Amino acid sequence: MATTTSRLVPAVILLVVSIGQAAAQTAPPESRARAHRRPIDPLYESVRKPEPAGPIDRAVFARLAELGIEPVLCSDTVFVRRAYLDVIGTLPTAAEVRHFLNDSTHRRAALIDRLLERDEFAAYQAMRWGDVLRIKAEFPVNLWPNAAQAYHRWVRESIAANKPYDRFARELLTSSGSNFRVGPVNFYRAVQNRTPEGLASAAALTLMGARTDAWPPGRLRGMAAFFSQVGYKPTREWKEQCVVWDPFHTLARAAAGDEMPRGFDDEPPPLVPQPLVAVFPDGKAVTIPPDRDPREVFADWLVRPENPWFARAIANRIWSWLLGRGVVHEPDDFRDDNPPSNPELLACLERAMIDGHFDLKRFYRTVLNSQTYQLSSISRSDDPAAAANFASYPVRRLDAEVLIDAINKVTGTAELYTSPIPEPFTYIPRDMPAIAIADGSITSPFLTLFGRSARATGLEGERKSRTMPSQWLETLNSTHIQRKLEDGPALKAILAPDRRPAEVVADLYMTILSRPPIAAEKKAIAAYFRSPEARATLAVDLPWALINSYEFLYRH
Amino acid sequence: MNPSRGPSDPGGATRREALRRALLAAAGLAAADRPSLAALADDFDAPTRAPAPDLASVPAAARAKSVIQVFLWGGMSHNDTWDPKPDAGYDYMGEFAGVIDTKVPGLRINQLFPRLAAEADKFSMIRSMTHGNNGHETAAYLMQTGHAPGERLAYPSVGAVFSMFKGRDYKGIVPPYVVLTSAAGRFSEEGFLGPRYKPFATGGDPNAPRFEVEGVIARGIDDGRQEARRVLLDGLDTMGRAMAGNAELEAAREAKARADELILGKGKEVFDLSKEKADLRDRYGRHTFGQECLVARRLVESGVPYVAINYPGGWDTHSNHFATMRRQCPQLDQGLAALLADLHDRRLLETTLVWCSGEFGRGPKVDWEPPWNGGRNHHGAVFSVLVAGGGFRGGHVVGESDGKAEEVRDRPVYPVDLLGSIYRLAGIDATARLPHPEGLEARVLPAASEGVKAAGLLAEIM
What InterPro entries does the record tag this protein with (chain A) (predicted)? Predict the structure, then answer.
């Protein structure tokens, strides 16, 4: 910390002199002082000046002006890589990069349209939903394998068909039927605590972006009533379970998923229908007649455009997936004492979601086409407010799944994904990318090491992106990665001995870093591969260096 | 109430409170949790765990700085090794009737262990280890966590617990929990503590001309090339330079520097057995297990808190039993005896706790009939554990099995007794709460109230 401060001192003096007294009065002097000028880096940045492209940009840029930050756009080569990784979780091929760079003047918008129609879009976004919805067969949520597959299939198909989000949420909340056949009923099974309070907490976290442990006491109790008639009914099939509306509580609620509720074969006891009193999280009470499933009453209240939680939570969540953090941060922690960093921006996002009638692809498209999303990732301010106000695109390590998929794609190799429980072991076809794995129980040592979500809580923070020394041991020096580099057929084809060295280098850069090499890099490479012997025996050191560069390992 | 741990002993209470506070800080728990934690801890300490032996002789200061665990995966026969019953006859003793004296009067072991016999003053032998579990995975879980298998939580192993408690003060380059050479497979050492507490499994073979430690020493890439590669990597770090000062990349750089200390710097030297004298290497035995023991000594010498050697070979001898024992026991004898002697010579045995055990023993009665043709089955009712150093006194025998080594005759020792003693000697509070990712209640060892069988810490050899 001390060194950072001392390094900043000359910049501070320069800025105060150049900006002058008048400008300093319009903004808090401290934040103004932390912004610094940096020349445009043509490799990673565009010389084109960003112009607000809509209300989102206007809301962000107004705040950046207050902070004294002049936003800079990213270069085309940065954009193509960023868009592929963020939208479809997949590295672009060299051919795809070249195609993009030769495209028309509206190449960025055209690329966004193409990516949103790719199969991998549904796969990758379903992976993120899998974390939020806790799609995992075994410990600790115990959906069981068939149910995890059914749940994931429903999510993935909903995304691929661009199902409006209000319908998606309604199906999650109100479905009934078998966990094997009706995917969304697993919403009520993917919780460890299946009490009405536990179910209400899961609904609040998932669909309202709210943690009920931060709520005033009483709010959760009132909401829990909507979930007090959810029943779980076993069938004769192994690990099959029906989620049903059970107004008379004929099924004793099973505490654990594998317990057989009592009364399964009994006649329901004769009961007089009673109206149910429940309280919405906004404090309004409702009396639900005995012929209505209370889950539907809750869903009706939730998915209205004027609901203060619903549209805001999903808009902020997708924003955080694309921009690295939410306007409300963490994106699943909406509460009065955790205000949005930019309320105008959050309002814009919410409006975009509602005006688009919960069309998620349209929302992605709007955000991806914004200048804010397309800003450079080279920071020009050390003010913490800069990051919270999206002054630059934040650098983040690739997700575990995305990283191993990228390494496999570059090298032309595959992984073995397995689940040791339940027996017999589950194996996944070798050509399936990690982003498409349905079930969080199916894994590999690499995915665990690189912080894949344990899918236990549904919190966004369960996915760990902090870089640990053991992860470097893996990418720099493990047998696992070394074998891929030495034996991978895709890499061997590029490194074929009869090819010209300049072509080899150009292809490696395009394949691994999605851009051509610059002069200084060519020089460093030429120095390393001075002799033909070095070229022959050390060839693999070049892709080794590139996959261990920050430029490969990090979204930028 | 135990005299050494009661309120009359302010030193002990303060130490425990300090530990508890450190743990609470690590777990990020609210201050409000403290009173209930203390209450539970007192409950654990209360004399519900009968019969509690006298612990007055147990030293207050933590004596074990490091632990070397030799795990005999598969379950080693106890009566063919450290608990022979020569009077039980051929059906029990099979091909190994020969029993030898040791340096300790009255302690006799199987003739397959002459070198250990000569070092018997340095270790004690528990001959009444018991848990009654005959499944590999469940018994291994019991022996390495102390918790009953089948609970809802997957507890971390003793090594992961060490790595959490001791790792905090440990500043070495090598990770705090090392496994030689591969992890145990279907046993998840880190449990719910998560990947951060996973052991560092070295891979490779320390008996090979070059010990290729996974992630540290790459196959077919010599040191010169490693260094040249770094020059290339740094030369191509264009984005890193463009983003100098970026906090995310700075953190990654620090993590990389730690990895590089292992790959390029001093870190990897600890694995370089060419630095040892040839005759010492010979004494340990020129086989994988012997050289693993030597690596383990080098690791604890450099301060690594927990080293687990998963024996490089199985002990699950349902068939072909006697041939397997003939092959493996001499190597186990040589490596273990050399390790104890070497630790002793370097005055490291006082601070290094060594324990050696399988997940259970093997059926004392030989299965002569086909298809076993002279094999032994799983046996969790009674078996033997060797413990040494780190505060354990040598030259003693704890407990006794019956005349045929089938059941405990005297002084049963349960997993919580053994692990509790190890934690005690290492200064780790066995009642301390572990940080569960969902904030669930979880402690290092189960409390007496959980109905776990316990017969008291190994006070007689502490």
Answer: DUF1549 (IPR011444), DUF1553 (IPR022655)
DSSP states along B47-63: TTSSSPPP-TTS-SS--
- In chain A, whose CA is at the least distance from the CA of B191? A139
Average pLDDT of the segment spanning B440-453: 87
Give φ, ψ of B99 to 5 degrees. Answer: -125, 140
Residues of B in contact with A420 (CB under 8 A): 186
Angle between helix A94-101 and helix A76-83 axes, rounded to 10 deg: 130
Inter-chain residue contact A470 with B175, CB threshold 8 Å? yes
Chain B residues in contact with A478 (beta carbon < 8 A): 214-215, 218
Which residue shows structure tokens 């007689």?
B460
Q: Which of A41, A139, A379, A472 to mutate to test the interface with B (most CBs of B within 10 A)?
A: A472
Q: How much is the average pLDDT of A516-521? A: 97
Instruction: Cite the beta strand spans of B25-160 per DSSP E.
Output: 66-71, 99-101, 108-110, 123-129
Q: Rounded to 5 degrees, what are φ and ψ at B352?
A: -115, 120
Query: What is the C-alpha to C-alpha distance for residues B431 and B445, in angstroms, rounded to an integer?
Result: 6
| Distance between start and end Cα atoms, chain B | 19
pLDDT for A542: 96
Neighboring chain B residues of A521 at a CB cutoff of 8 Å: 235-236, 238
The closest CB to that of A524, out of B175, B236, B251, belongs to B236
What is the predicted pLDDT for the residue at B309? 97
Q: Give the H or E element holding residue A427.
A: strand A426-427
* Dihedral (CA of A523, A529, A532, A538) sign: negative
Q: Is the dihedral of CA B131, B133, B138, B140 positive or negative?
A: positive
Characterize the bridge pairing of strands A418-419 and A426-427: antiparallel
* Cβ <8 Å between B194 and A454: yes
Can you tell me the distance from the alpha carbon of B446 to that of B427, in angstroms, rounded to the nearest whole number? 17
B323 neighbors B313 (Cβ within 8 angstroms) = no
Tokens 């939680």 sit on residue: A309
Provide the residue count of chain B.
462
Q: Is B32 exposed, middle or buried (0-12, 13-18, 19+ CB in 10 A)?
A: exposed
Using the predicted structure, report yes or no on whether residue B318 has a pLDDT greater than 70. Answer: yes
Cross-chain CB nearest to B215 (options A474, A520, A524): A474
CATH (one of 3.40.720, 3.40.50, 3.30.1380, 3.30.310) for B66-211+272-461: 3.40.720
| Sign of the four-CA dihedral B278, B282, B283, B288 | positive
Instruction: State the Cα–Cα distance between residues B271 and B201, nearest whole angstrom.
Output: 13
Cβ neighbours of B152 in A, within 8 Å = 140
What pTM, to 2 d.p., does this model score? 0.81
Count how many Cα atoms sit within 13 Å of the Cα of residue A14 in the half-sphere of its side chain. Answer: 10
From residue B153, give the alpha-carbon distance in Å to each of A139, A456, B40, B441.
9, 12, 19, 10
Question: B124 forms bridges with which residues in the sheet?
Answer: B387
Query: Using the beta-carbon criterion (under 8 Å), do A468 and B255 form an inter-chain contact?
Result: yes
| CA distance from start to end of chain A | 24
* Residue B274 in tokens: 């060419």
CB atoms within 10 A of CB A94: 16
Q: How far is Cα of residue B158 from the mean position of the Cα atoms in its chain? A: 7
Tell me the C-alpha distance between A147 and A177, whole Å. Answer: 12
pLDDT in tens, B346-400: 999 999 999 999 999 999 999 999 899 999 999 999 999 999 999 999 999 999 9
With CA atoms as reference, the chain B residue closest to A5 would be: B245
The per-residue pLDDT for range A236-276, each reduced to its tens digit, is 998 899 999 998 887 754 444 444 444 445 555 556 678 99
Considering only alpha carbons, which residue of chain B is nearest residue A524?
A: B235
Task: Give residue-wise pLDDT tens across range A342-376.
Answer: 999 999 999 999 999 999 999 999 999 999 999 99
Position of tokens 């030898």? B100
The first and second tokens of residue B25, run together, are 């800080």
